[in-house]
């Protein structure tokens, strides 16, 4: 093991070894397409994939709600009352807030 380390160290001390070491460091850390950037991009991709799945589910849910509201007058009134606190004439609306 010790002999192998000395062989590698002697090879790295040549001008080709130094250039190779600098190249590996440059590609690994400093280049625009470095290994660090590659791992960061993989993490971003995973996060964006999760976000895409969430948004697709939300779109399906919202389309279902829109269809319900466009086809059923009762649901439209219920939605308007709950979300926008709308009311009919001569009608009182009470908002009940539950405390935890």
Sum this structure up briefly.
By secondary structure, the protein is mainly α.
Q: For the CA atoms, what is the radius of gyration?
A: 32 Å
Q: Stretches where pLDDT falls below 50 for ≥5 residues?
A: none
Helix content: over 70%
Secondary-structure element pattern, one letter each: HHHH
By DSSP (H or I, 4+ residues per run), the number of helices equals 4
**Major beta-sheet overview:** none
Strand percent estimate: under 5%
Describe the structure in your own words.
By secondary structure, this protein is mostly helical. The protein folds into 2 domains: 1-31; 33-87. It has helices at 2-12, 15-30, 35-71, 73-84. α3 (35-71) crosses α4. The N and C termini lie far apart (66 Å).
Question: Which short descriptors sum up this protein?
Answer:
rod-shaped, 4 helices, 100 residues, mainly alpha, 2 domains
Reconstruct the topology from this structure.
Elements: H1 2-12, H2 15-30, H3 35-71, H4 73-84
Helix pairs in contact: 3-4
């Amino acid at each position: 093991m010790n002999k192998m380390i000395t062989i590698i160290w002697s090879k790295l001390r040549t001008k080709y070894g130094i250039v190779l070491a600098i190249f590996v460091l440059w590609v690994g850390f400093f280049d625009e397409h470095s290994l660090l950037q590659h791992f960061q991009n993989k993490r971003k991709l995973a996060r964006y994939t999760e976000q895409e799945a969430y948004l697709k589910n939300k779109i399906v849910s919202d389309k279902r709600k829109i269809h319900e509201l466009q086809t059923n007058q009762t649901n439209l009134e219920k939605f308007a009352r709950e979300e926008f606190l709308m009311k009919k004439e001569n009608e009182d609306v009470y908002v009940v807030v539950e405390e935890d």
